Amino acid sequence: MNVSASGRGSGKLSLTDLQSKMKSDPEGYETELTLIYRQFNSAVDLFQQQAALNFNSVTGVSSDPIVAKDLSDRAMFLAHVTPFYPHQLADFPNQLADFLSTTAKLLPSGVRCHVTQALILLINRKIVDIGETLSLFMELQTLGDRNLKKLAFSHVVHSVRRMNQKHKNEAKNRALQNILFSMLQLEDEARAKRSLVTLCELHRRKVWNDDRTANAICMACFHSSSRIMIAAISFLLDYEKIEDDDDDDSDVSSSEDDSTTHKPHVIINRESIYKANHKGTVASKKKKKAKLERAIRSMKRQQRLSSKNSNSNYYSPLNHLNDAQEFAEKLFSRLQSCNERFEVKMLMLKVIARTVGLHRLILLNFYPFLQKYVQPHQRDITNLLAAAVQACHDMVPPEAVEPLFKQIVNQFVHDRSRTEAIAIGLNVIREICLRMPLLMTEDLLQDLVLYKKSHEKAVSTAARSLMVLFREICPSLLVKKDRGRPTDPKARPKAYGEVDVASNVLGFELLRNSNDVDDDADSMGDDDINELAFSVSDEGDDNNNEEAAASDDEENQLSRVESDDIVDEDEDSDNSSGDGSDVSDRDDGEEADKDENSDADVSGGKNSGKVSKAKKRKFSDFEGQLLAADTSLRALKRLAEAKMESESLDTTDGILSNEDFQKIKQLKAEKEANIALSRQGLSRKLDAKSTAFKIPTSDQLSVKRVDPAQLEAHVRRRISKEEKLALVKAGREDREKYQSRIAVKQNKTGGLSNRQKERKKFMPTAAKRSKVAKTRLEKKRKQQRSGNQFRGKKAWK
């Protein structure tokens, strides 16, 4: 039995068979257990003596494969049977951990992995606590053994995840975090790197996504080792990309996160669904179904993005910074004084810009630092411009960003610049003005909008997007023909430091309008109806006589809208005209306005001459009444609105119930559905304000990450010669080999053509003569149709 227990006998029991028998009958095999335990102790003593004598793992007893195999087999055997012999093997886990900590460097790679697996087996069976062995497993990752590093790292991550699977144990988590945080602050680069990698992996898997872990990862950016700093900065920059990749992970944590997220709910009215399925022809119903599916997809995407941005668990570690201003200042000072390569400086610059934009910090020295690198030939200029855009927000004084803004305009947007540089410059200007519209001036905007007539698609698209943005932000900066139909002609950007204070619950107007539609209809009396009819008649008279009944402001507004309609209809003809006419129109804008006013007066005089004397008298009599009615109607509207607000507040007492909030949410979803359907042409057109371009708020812009690829939209990249050849060869794959027509006819398989059959066909003499006569007659008719001009006969006939 001794030989069978040791595993040396080929015909007797092996260790696996003995292990199964000991699990079934623990008391009957105690002598074999003591024997194998003694053999393990002797092997351990032998290896420890070798470590004390500073022997290498290549020489001595450890080079013997039989001794190494016996040690690893007995370690695994004892780890499997430890739960069945708790008293006899009480010291075995501590002995195994001490053996690994003292002689791990001198053990062969196979023995190290087997002994580590035995210790992991004991930890998984909760015989040993992970807190006691965490420092040991972190040390094992620094030995240079790739397999052992992978094994120890995966064990630490999975054990911490398993510990926090049902509920988070804050006491144990703090103890484990203190061990890793202390290792991260060490000067030893290998230990600090492994602790940082472990913390990042646990944060990515959302096991430790608290403030302490996030701040520890961010503070690693100030480590003395540049490798640790680069690793921490790279994790902070790529966190959102890692989050997208982690959605496909099949872990337990990801499944839990998927179970908590709700699917987007889309509300579509039944009328549009009925029309798409039952009304019209087959082709029209197919088109309606496709439009309906596109609308549903767009709404689901918007809801998914909004839920992702509003989800508190989706924050990057930069959101959890305790002192973001100090972090940005320290990292910027290190950027100014470091001698790292250009790629590392770009990483640091991106993190600073992301922190400034995310927390809306004021770092005034950062913008002159960026100004030195803003040149079209600069390396990675698109990433640098994206960082500059990210660092701009409404809390920064415009005077601090104005030199950088002018540098971008002067270096990128001019006639001698390349089309790629102009397109990128216009896109960057648009993004900066979206965050800080006070930087733009009227002359500069009108000059930039002139690039909308460029023949390059990237440049014209960028210029038009800038024009569309300022149609919503400040239409008065644009030329009259570029304003289009703004939703608010008197819109102005906020002054520096101006803040909109919310005085009501978001979406309360929808709830109030839905509740008070019937009440308003019932409460309207005869006087209100008469006033409404009078106002409608006034509006009809105003439409017929605009110049007399409307005020000066309303005249300007109406003329602006009409001119914009004309410009929109004749936009193609304007694009075909030269740039010189456009410039002359811009230069003579004031004179054109004066001419328009004078023309309006003249046209008004002509029209008045055609009107009869009775209408003139009637118009002169009611002129004062119409103006008085206009002012009284405005006052009545204001009083009615104030009364409605007070009544709604009195009825609800300023407190909304859960049902009201649910109804507000439903009304918002219905409004978004109507907007999406109207854009696809499936429902009636709504007003311009509901379907217009919505400018994101400052909070949304600060959370949003600027993608450098979007700044290069529609820019054609130059194709190298190898890529051109690859495209040519790819186009020739399905094409047949080139041959002449004669070769194709010779290789033709099949019967003769009709012309060949006519040549070989046997015909009688009368038929041949009639055919010749027909051909002569056809030639004669062709000559008569062609004319009497004689071109002569050919010499060779």
Automatic annotation (TrEMBL):
Basic residues: bias regions: 757-784
Highest taxon listed in the record's lineage: Eukaryota
GO cellular component, one term: nucleolus
Domain spans labelled SDA1 N-terminal: 77-454
Biased composition annotated in UniProt, kind: Acidic residues: 538-556, 564-574, 585-599
Region (Disordered), start-end ranges: 1-24, 535-617, 733-797
Keyword annotations: Nucleus, Protein transport, Ribosome biogenesis, Transport
Pfam families, sorted: SDA1_HEAT
Cell location: Nucleus, Nucleolus
GO biological process, one term: ribosomal large subunit export from nucleus
Family to which the UniProt record says this protein belongs: Belongs to the SDA1 family.
Function: Required for 60S pre-ribosomal subunits export to the cytoplasm.
Name of this protein: Protein SDA1
